[in-house]
Inverse folding.
């Protein structure tokens, strides 16, 4: 299993932009991000394959690409990995069928996190930590619950949901290995400046880790 030893910035496509927009923005921001998730639930397999090809042609390293749900396409295109959600095939089955993939699992509770860990997930996306426009009316799980997941699940935990650059330090203090951002970058008026802001915050040294939680 690959362990992520340094903090990482994951950026997730929003499902609100065309392939052309996704590729254009990704080409600009990729020097400041670690993982790019292609999360386009309405796209066909052919569209996802074309998107991967265009991203690679635009200079995005294949090691930075992760496809949501479609482990088959992730394996065929030999990208870094696949991100699984509650609607996806179980982690264990995907792990057995596609052992070359780095598998992330989206979880929302300690019970889900434990199950994903036991089934062989390589990292977890946990949230939504704060209230977010992408899930209106759904209350954030909070920093304390994030820290509980980090302390009890021996996997890299990536926090997601309503995270602004100003909130990154609180996330880092929990011991989380990174953050995931959707609209905060892809729908920003200046995606490059937004990516740079998140990058600088997540890699900033934070002293007295965890003492404010």
């Amino acid at each position: 299993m690959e362990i992520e030893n340094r903090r990482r910035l994951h950026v997730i496509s929003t499902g609100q932009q065309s392939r052309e927009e996704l590729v254009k923005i990704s080409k600009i921001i990729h020097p400041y991000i670690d993982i790019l998730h292609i999360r386009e639930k309405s796209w066909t397999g052919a569209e996802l394959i074309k998107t991967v090809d265009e991203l690679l042609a635009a200079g995005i390293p294949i090691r930075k690409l992760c496809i949501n749900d479609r482990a088959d396409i992730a394996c065929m295109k030999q990208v870094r990995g696949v991100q699984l959600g509650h609607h996806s095939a179980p982690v264990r089955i995907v792990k057995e069928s596609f052992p070359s993939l780095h598998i992330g699992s989206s979880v929302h509770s300690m019970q889900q996190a434990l199950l994903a860990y036991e089934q062989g997930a390589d990292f977890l996306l946990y949230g939504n930590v704060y209230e977010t426009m992408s899930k209106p009316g759904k209350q954030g799980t909070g920093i304390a619950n994030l820290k509980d997941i980090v302390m009890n699940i021996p996997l890299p935990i990536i926090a997601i949901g309503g995270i602004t650059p100003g909130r990154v330090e609180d996330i880092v203090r929990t011991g989380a290995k990174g953050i995931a951002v959707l609209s905060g970058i892809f729908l920003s008026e200046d995606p490059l400046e937004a990516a740079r802001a998140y990058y600088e915050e997540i890699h900033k040294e934070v002293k007295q880790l965890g003492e404010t939680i």
User: Anything to note?
Assistant: The beta strands are 8-12, 35-38, 65-68, 81-84, 102-107, 123-127, 157-160, 178-181. The first strand starts at residue 8 and ends at 12. The mean pLDDT is 93.
